[in-house]
């Protein structure tokens, strides 16, 4: 879903969703998007395209300014996130195994285990009453 700060007021069409842009960033599609034929209907004849933001620009100077802008850098940060997958959606709905938790320190894992054990003990005490 486009980020709320990404305004569509100045655009003719809606912005692409993050997962669509991540598909466009794959090498085969990226080459096609960067080496498009001249299309007189697009801004800059379709020659100045920012893949990360899915926008066409009138000239190289405008595109260069855009690449230095805050919205472009924010979009790059959003694209670094791992895309939401079907397995995650199913696990959240209780239809599968949750994906493994990555990058936790041993202390964090221990704290999570203690919290889970205390929750189980509280549930057992409530059920015996």
From TrEMBL:
InterPro entries with a match to the protein in the record: C2H2-ZF_Maturation_Protein, Matrin/U1-like-C_Znf_C2H2, Znf_C2H2_jaz, Znf_C2H2_sf, Znf_C2H2_type
Keyword set, alphabetical order: Cytoplasm, Metal-binding, Nucleus, Ribosome biogenesis, Zinc, Zinc-finger
GO MF term set: nucleic acid binding; ribonucleoprotein complex binding; zinc ion binding
Full protein name: Zinc finger protein 593 homolog
BP GO annotations: ribosome biogenesis
Residue ranges of every copy of the C2H2-type domain listed in the record: 48-77
Keyword Iron: no
GO CC list: cytoplasm; nucleus
SUPFAM superfamilies noted in UniProt: beta-beta-alpha zinc fingers
Compartments it resides in: Cytoplasm; Nucleus
Family statement: Belongs to the ZNF593/BUD20 C2H2-type zinc-finger protein family.
Function according to Swiss-Prot or TrEMBL: Involved in pre-60S ribosomal particles maturation by promoting the nuclear export of the 60S ribosome.
Region feature Disordered, mapped onto this chain: 1-20
TM spans (from-to): none
Lineage: Eukaryota, Metazoa, Ecdysozoa, Nematoda, Chromadorea
Main localization of the protein described in the UniProt heading: cytoplasm
Pfam families per UniProt: zf-C2H2_jaz
Subunit structure: Associates with pre-60S ribosomal particles; released from the pre-60S particle very early in the cytoplasm.
């Amino acid at each position: 879903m486009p980020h709320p700060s990404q305004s569509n007021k100045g655009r003719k069409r809606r912005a692409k969703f993050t997962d669509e842009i991540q598909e466009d960033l794959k090498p085969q599609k990226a080459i096609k998007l960067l080496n498009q034929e001249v299309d007189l209907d697009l801004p800059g004849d379709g020659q100045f395209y920012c893949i990360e933001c899915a926008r066409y620009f009138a000239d190289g100077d405008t595109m260069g300014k855009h690449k230095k802008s805050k919205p472009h850098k924010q979009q790059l940060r959003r694209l670094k996130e791992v895309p939401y997958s079907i397995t995650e959606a199913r696990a959240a709905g209780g239809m599968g195994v949750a994906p493994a938790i990555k990058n936790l320190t041993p202390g964090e894992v221990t704290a999570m285990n203690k919290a889970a054990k205390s929750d189980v003990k509280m549930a057992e005490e409530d059920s015996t009453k």
